[in-house]
TrEMBL record:
Pfam families linked: ADH_N, ADH_zinc_N
Domain of life: Bacteria
UniProt cross-references to Gene3D superfamilies, sorted A to Z: Medium-chain alcohol dehydrogenases, catalytic domain, NAD(P)-binding Rossmann-like Domain
Protein name: Alcohol dehydrogenase catalytic domain-containing protein
One GO molecular-function entry: oxidoreductase activity
Keywords linked to the UniProt accession: Oxidoreductase
Cofactors that this protein relies on: Zn(2+)
The keyword Protease is assigned to this record: no
Lineage, broadest ranks: Bacteria, Bacillati, Actinomycetota, Actinomycetes, Micrococcales
Domain Alcohol dehydrogenase-like N-terminal intervals: 29-136
Domain (Alcohol dehydrogenase-like C-terminal): residue spans on this chain: 174-300
């Protein structure tokens, strides 16, 4: 039986999140009610927390990286009891991008957890078209990685990566490491990662990637692997001005630069080098529905061995500690929040 109220983490004001009892969401006609298993904390949640997101308005239930079970099925979509992950995009269906089948870059793109209530709660109401069924046997905790993994899948797809390519990745946060894993699975011969955090460098090295040593540079590390030509594909998952300034220099003639991390403001980039090398630069907004499906396939087949991807689960009641852990970025690559009893890490 569905209760009348539920626990939810609500952002109330800058740097203020409280777990309170709120009504279980009313389910619009044709929609589904999902019982949340886990929700991943991402940089967007931290931006909202600190009052820096331009669209988020308090009070707001945070969270868009979610897994859970269909409690009440929608008019279409997965039946009750199905484990699902969510494609949390809200598109207008009217702009040119939407009409052209590119709703993931809708002119008025929104997300659950930003523009509508999210998943840091026991239940969330969602339209059935955003629900993706997860195959039997997949751990809901691992399934929660499908949303950030879809970003990586989309980035590698846009890169035009070919088997045997040498790849440079800036940033060993969750998106950077997932992008590196997908690139290797797609056939990259060498994946080189640079990252300022010693702990994250150790994680990347433990996953079998070449890591730029302290005191060295990406260019110096790539040189012996590429005869000094540079990377075939460079992924910027760090979104830091110092990275934007050098991505063209470390990428070969006619190489591809993929901007995966979202810059908070306009940032200088070496357009002269891009012209002289005839490089291609492409941005990544989010992902397509097909990318989410592919991410689920990679998880279900254990193609990326994500059991080695460090996560830490916090109870919903301990959301403040979860947000603090995500801010420091130490001891785990992905912080999860769960409303389920007994599923948080001790």
């Amino acid at each position: 039986m569905i209760p009348a109220t539920m626990a939810a983490a609500r952002w109330l004001a800058t740097d203020t999140v409280e777990v309170t009892q709120v009504p279980v969401p009313e389910v619009p006609e044709g929609w589904a009610l999902v019982k949340v298993a886990y929700d991943g904390v991402c940089g967007t949640d931290l931006s909202i927390l600190h009052g820096k997101h331009p669209r988020a308005a308090a009070p707001l239930i945070l969270g868009h990286e979610m897994s859970g079970w269909v409690e009440t099925a929608g008019a279409t979509g997965p039946p009750a009891g199905t484990l699902v992950v969510v494609e949390p995009l809200i598109s207008c269906g009217e702009c040119k991008a939407c009409r052209d089948g590119l709703s993931h870059v809708c002119r008025r793109l929104g997300l659950y957890g930003i523009d509508a209530p999210g998943a840091m709660a026991q239940y969330v109401a969602l339209p059935p078209e955003v629900l993706h069924a997860v195959p039997d046997g997949v751990d809901p905790r691992t399934a929660t990685l499908a949303e950030p993994l879809a970003v990586a899948v989309h980035a590698v797809d846009l890169s035009g990566l070919r088997p045997g390519d040498t790849v440079a990745v800036y940033g060993a946060g969750p998106i950077g490491v997932l992008t590196a894993l997908v690139a290797r699975h797609a056939g990259a011969a060498h994946v080189v990662i640079t990252e300022p955090s010693a702990w994250r460098r150790d994680v990347a090295a433990g996953l079998g990637f070449t890591v730029v040593a302290p005191g060295s540079t990406m260019a110096e590390t790539l040189a012996p692997l590429t005869d000094g030509e540079g990377a075939d594909v460079t992924f910027d998952s760090a979104a830091h001005p110092t990275v934007a300034a050098e991505v063209a220099a470390v990428t070969r003639v006619r190489g591809r630069v993929v901007i995966v991390g979202v810059y908070k403001q306009p940032t200088p980039i070496d357009l002269q080098a891009i012209c002289f090398k005839e490089q291609t630069v492409v941005g990544v907004r989010v992902y397509t529905s097909a990318d989410v499906t592919r991410a689920i396939e990679l998880i279900a087949t254990d193609a990326l061995e994500l059991e080695h991807f460090p996560t830490r689960a916090f109870a919903l009641d301990d959301v403040a500690a979860a947000l603090d852990a995500a801010t420091t970025g130490q001891d785990c690559l992905k912080v999860l929040v769960t409303p389920l009893t007994g599923k948080a890490d001790s």
